[in-house]
Amino acid sequence: MKQGGISWLLGAALALGSAIAVQATVLDELKVNDQAIIEDRLPRTLGEFGFFLDPAVQTPAWGVHPYELNTPLYSDGAEKLRFIYMPEGTKAEANGEGLLKFPVGSALIKTFAFGEGDKRRLIETRVLLHRADGWIALPYKWNKEQTDALLAIAGARLPITTPGGEEISYRIPNKNQCKECHGLDDEVVLLGPRARNLSAEWLAGFAERGWLDAAPGLAERLPVWADREHTDIEAAARAYLDVNCAHCHRPGAMASNSGLDLRWEQTDPIAIGVLKRPVAAGRGSGGLEFSIVPGDPDNSIMVHRMNSIESGVAMPELGKATVDKDGVAAVERWIAGMDR
Amino acid sequence: MTKLNLLCATALIAAAMPLAAETHTVAPGGGAQERLQEALILAEPGDEIVLGAGRFELTDGLSLDVDGVTVRGAGMDQTVLDFSNQMDAGEGLLVTSDNVVLREFGVEDSKGDGIKSKGADNIVYYKIRVEWTRGPHPENGAYAIYPVESTNVLVDTVTTIGSSDAGIYVGQSENIIVRNSVAKYNVAGIEIENSYGADVYNNLAVNNTGGILVFDLPDIPKQGGRDVRVFRNIVVDNNTPNFAPEGNIVAEVPTGMGVMVMSHYNVEVFENVFAENATGNILIVGYPNETSDEDYNPLPVNVLITRNIQGRAGYNPAFDGAELLAAAMGGTIPPVTHDGNGTDIVVQDEVPVLSLGFTRPAQPFTEARPGIVDLSGDGSRKPILEPIVLPEAMEAVVKQ
Known about the structure:
Chain A is of the alpha+beta class. Chain A has 7 helices and 12 strands. In chain A, helix 5 crosses helix 7.
């Protein structure tokens, strides 16, 4: 009995010990693989990073924080799941209304999914990794089993049915195309997490938990796209153009030579296209003379190109196989309301 | 000390030289899109990507973003990048890195532009063909060869056919040579726009709407286009009806144009051969539209036309009011027309010059005061612009 008690105790201690050991292993596995983010190589699978506890349902790992944008980029109606990862013990810095600054070792993760409920399929996950020499952007394509995603450095195409019921050939961008949108002055930059496009609540919560130095107090933010019917149409349209177009149409970016600058903060009417003639639109002009004709959306090149899915005419040039009818409607309404 | 210096020197040379440049061969056939794009992404500086002979059937735009890479095919007619089934991107091939050489391949039927290089310094296009195979059509891509926002551009021995804007278009760039090339059945054969320093020579511009254009336009980040020499080109029979979509500045180029200078500073047009351009061999004009861009000069300044061979022209002029003028002048207007705008416009070729007598740009034709003018001054002007000199490594490419 006594002996038994001792052996029971011993057994319990051993069991506890192994439980602790098991716990430690599990904890390690719950952690993101920092090396995969910062090492100078291209991880072959998304799983190597360990961003998700349960990849199929996108349960984030420890230190991986979900976020949403007030006005998001249109991607053929894909559901987009956005996450930020920062290494343990680090925090982001606010920069006024601009992009939050994330330390080296951080990652931004965006998963694209189509379908509702049981039918939801993860299609691709795009990651931005902050390495010592800057950000690098990589696309990963999900496997059929939905267990992991493989590096798709040259991009891919696959058939998709959009929420609107359109059958499209969906394009996963290649590594260079990632940079075509994320490039500014020859560096890879972030696009989404600008303070002005994040909710005050999220920023405050992020700061409270010690992940952000301080929540910036902002006089204005981009309106929430889903609520656009109830907001000023100019703000909604300009927010849409800022998020969907200005990554290229701004100085230092891919469409700088067009002279069109669609950033939220741009106030010069010609720069945003009002009575501005095209520079290199080619057949994209559709026989029209100006990017924006006040009061006349039908004769505005901007609307014409947003309304097209034809390569060489369609804007944006990448990541779009369907027309964003809501986006077009907002921009049309804004232009229609301008004084002629 | 000496040893240390030697070590440093070795290290420096090692740093300057590409490490073990490699050749990657890509053949046409199944999966060409992914295989070729992957090669373009994984290339290291100094590498050469060799494209096999045959047709590469592509579904999306290609892009190169690695410095110092050469893409070499088996010849502009032997290796063809076929974009007739392209679904995405604004051009066939996009280059965004420096010191790139594109040579000896063809690009066909891209949905937007043919080859675009943006912010790509020291780029060489050599023995490249870009073509829309159905011939002139308003839904063809805008530019065949399209370097923009770049310093040091060499376009040599290329052929462009069917662009709905310009075959060879160099925009917002500096230090440019376009030579030994053929531009046919484009709206504009060759266009230098909002750029500083270009030599355009030994080219053949035939069957375009307009042969060679030198333009400076408003509301563009880089303005004040200047210092362009157009010489020893053959510019003949550019009478293809303008098929550019409206809204583009080239849609305003009158059909039947040889060389057209719009706005711009310091242009020398000399020793070219002109003939059979129905509107005219040379047209010098101010910017024809209203603009509120206060930094922009809509007038041409310092344009010299001299020592050209001027064949028949002006027999079917296509600009506003030209028909009336031609009728009044016995059916033909002079081969050189100046709209009257600008300063230091000198024409020393021994042909009559028509002035439209405008006193400001964007003036309606009803206010024209046309007449024959003598713009030869004392006849002693000579071209004085310095030849464009490119880095030796770029010139070395075309000697290989």
